[in-house]
Write a structure and sequence with these properties.
Strand order of the largest sheet: 1-2
Largest sheet: 2 strands, antiparallel
Strand content: under 5%
Number of helices: 6
Shape: elongated
Distance between the termini: 44 Å
Number of domains: 1
Structural class: mainly alpha
Length: 132
């Protein structure tokens, strides 16, 4: 005879699958949050670094457009100060004031949370792992 463990009149196997479903939902939420972070913060930081290291070969209009897009990404993530600094840097590039642009760009980078975020050893190991 097969017995089913009952807890509050719910079969044990149903409780177990409900627990797995809760874990799956929690993990899904975490993954979606991480994807949002990568689409905003990480992308903004990478584009910013590309612009700053290659600004000698970019036209002022290119730099201005990219700074504006970085500003929008920062604003979308709720990073008001870096967003405003990028916006002002874009305006400075448009007006031809390179010294002001460089100063504002540096301010934005220092205020960026992505720049201050340490990478954990586990994160660097997971990047080298190939998943098919």
């Amino acid at each position: 005879m097969i017995r089913c463990l009952l807890v509050r009149e719910v079969p044990f196997h149903r409780l177990e699958s409900a627990g797995l479903e809760i874990s799956r939902k929690k993990l899904r939420d975490e993954v979606l949050e991480r994807v949002k972070y990568v689409k905003t913060c990480v992308l903004a930081r990478e584009v910013c670094l590309l612009v700053r290291t290659n600004r000698a070969v970019l036209n002022p209009k290119d730099v201005q457009d990219m700074c504006l897009s970085i500003s929008k990404l920062c604003k979308e993530e709720g990073c008001k100060e870096p967003s405003e600094a990028c916006q002002k840097a874009a305006d400075a590039v448009g007006s031809g004031d390179e010294a002001k642009y460089l100063d504002l760009c540096a301010q934005s980078c220092m205020k960026c949370g992505e720049a201050r975020k340490p990478t954990s050893p586990a994160a660097s190991e997971s990047r080298s792992t190939y998943v098919a």
